[in-house]
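TICKET: design request
STATUS: open
ATTACHED STRUCTURE:
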């Protein structure tokens, strides 16, 4: 039976300890109701109070120095081991009392409070349920969360920008904190908007209001300390310290170093729109027993969207574009897919199996074809139980790996098929010495879409000064290289640069009917403003320190 971390379960009139007392080192919350003056008091950093709005002026570890309101500290024996409940003058709590006993005074060391204490407890006990987390959402956390938001993000239904809200931040944060703690906070509906996907279809987004983004970011900070200790190693999407290139290199290393012969490229259809709210709540309750946090999350799930002036209630899914959606999506797939596939490959697989998941895109490698087919059938049934379906066109099982080309050649087949993952097409290739290697190149369809966007922007900027357009183009190209400049992809990027230069020259020649811009003259401009691609990312073995 999972243990429960019961925090703040003293009565209103009971005496309680100061937060510096080691006997309260595992009790990371108070009553949590601002009506009884038992919440933690946070002070806004002086640098922000004095007008400094830069993120670097704020203290990242502000939770570690939180103060509690005045209390009467009961006398504690120095040399006798007693439970925390005994020192507070109350009965021992069932389940957790024997786990969190304090050592003798001569040997104890101060234990971390705040979110660091939550992280350590989550790491120590994987079955621990947290009953009081709301008090960690302090005014200082709300301020930090505000400055963590994207300052150029689209506005929500209220039309308030990040810059507008910054002007009233310190006058509003206390009211917002009070509304959250008392339950008076109400989530606003998201503004519906659409963006084009790579295949030309529209992707629906839900843009939340600034105040909702702040509260969501604060909750994400708290929950991340728990779930970062639970998420498995092959989960890379929207996690702290992990990025897309970590997932790409993990795929490269797994296929290159293990006898993988088959690849299952799996994609979930409309994943963010089909998350089941009932299952989402059940999964959250595995670790979160704080009803106020759960109610807060359900407010966002049920807030709905505003489209064409009318509100559409949300029955399923979580708005793609909301701050908390990536974390909720990871939690959902952690229980639906990650833990299940980890158990499957340990108990049902006879050969090697590798797994890499980034959000709703997964790459699973198998040594044997029969196991790959059996897994695909079991995965389809597993997803159906939780309201998810695999995309019929994007989900493919292909022969791929070190010996795939040789086996296919013996059967009279063409070269192995390729698969796309996180913006790159993965191909079976050879080194200069004839050995196997994975060739990663930018997906052609994505590159054409980017090229079309640049051409359209250059057309709009046709009559602007060359220096101004060149500075903009340099930023665009450097940003593109920062993601796509991986080993073996420079040849394709050089072709991309050449196409961009031709598009810019075409617009320069159309500025006037008496154009005299030759290619030789333009080359000097291109060398100054359009950088050549250089390798930005190391080879995967270097990143993995093999």
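STATUS: resolved
RESOLUTION: sequence designed for all positions
ATTACHED SEQUENCE:
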């Amino acid at each position: 039976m999972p243990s429960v971390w019961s925090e703040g379960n003293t009565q209103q009139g009971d005496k309680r300890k100061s937060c510096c007392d080691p006997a309260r080192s595992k009790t990371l919350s108070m009553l949590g109701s601002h009506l009884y003056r038992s919440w933690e008091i946070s002070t806004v950093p002086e640098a922000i109070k004095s007008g400094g709005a830069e993120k670097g002026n704020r203290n990242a570890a502000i939770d570690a120095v939180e103060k509690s309101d005045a209390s009467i500290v009961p006398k504690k024996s120095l040399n006798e081991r007693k439970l925390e409940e005994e020192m507070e003058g109350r009965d021992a709590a069932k389940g957790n009392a024997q786990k969190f006993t304090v050592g003798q005074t001569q040997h104890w060391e101060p234990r971390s409070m705040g979110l660091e204490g939550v992280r350590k407890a989550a790491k120590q006990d994987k079955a621990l349920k947290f009953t009081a987390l709301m008090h960690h959402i302090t005014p200082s956390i709300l301020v930090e969360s505000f400055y963590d938001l994207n300052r150029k993000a689209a506005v929500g239904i209220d039309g308030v920008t990040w810059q507008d809200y910054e002007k009233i931040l310190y006058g509003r944060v206390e009211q917002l904190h009070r509304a959250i703690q008392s339950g008076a906070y109400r989530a606003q509906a998201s503004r519906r908007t659409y963006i084009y996907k790579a295949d030309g279809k529209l992707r629906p987004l839900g843009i939340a209001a600034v105040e909702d983004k702040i509260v969501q970011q604060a909750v994400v900070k708290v929950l991340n300390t728990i779930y970062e200790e639970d998420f498995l190693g092959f989960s890379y999407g929207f996690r702290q310290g992990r990025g897309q290139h970590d997932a790409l290199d993990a795929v490269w290393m797994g296929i290159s170093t293990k006898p993988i012969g088959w690849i299952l490229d799996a994609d979930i259809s409309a994943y963010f729109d089909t998350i089941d709210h009932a299952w989402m709540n059940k999964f959250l309750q595995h670790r979160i027993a704080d009803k106020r946090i759960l109610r807060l999350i359900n407010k966002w799930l049920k807030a709905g969207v505003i489209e064409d002036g009318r509100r559409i209630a949300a029955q399923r899914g979580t708005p793609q574009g909301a701050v908390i959606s990536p974390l909720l999506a990871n939690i959902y797939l952690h229980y639906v897919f990650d833990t299940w596939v980890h158990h499957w490959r340990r108990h049902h697989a006879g050969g090697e199996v590798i797994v890499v998941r980034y959000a709703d895109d997964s790459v699973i490698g198998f040594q044997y074809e029969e196991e790959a087919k059996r897994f695909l059938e079991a995965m389809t049934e597993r997803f159906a139980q939780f309201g998810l379906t695999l995309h019929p066109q994007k989900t493919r099982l292909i022969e791929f790996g070190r010996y795939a080309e040789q086996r296919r050649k013996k059967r009279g087949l063409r070269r192995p098929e390729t698969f796309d993952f996180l913006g790159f097409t993965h191909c079976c290739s050879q080194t200069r010495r004839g050995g196997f290697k994975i060739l990663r190149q930018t997906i052609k369809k994505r590159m054409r879409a980017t090229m079309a966007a640049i051409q359209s922007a250059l057309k709009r900027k046709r009559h602007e000064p060359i220096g101004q357009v060149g500075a903009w183009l340099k930023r665009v190209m450097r940003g593109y290289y920062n993601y796509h400049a991986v080993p073996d992809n420079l040849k394709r990027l050089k072709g991309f640069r050449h196409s961009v230069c031709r598009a810019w020259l075409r617009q320069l020649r159309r500025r006037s009917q008496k154009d005299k811009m030759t290619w030789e003259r333009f080359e000097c401009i291109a060398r100054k403003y359009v950088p050549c691609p250089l390798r930005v990312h190391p080879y995967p073995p270097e990143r993995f320190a093999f």
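CLOSING REMARK: Residues 3-112 have pLDDT under 50 and may be disordered. The longest strand covers residues 190-196.
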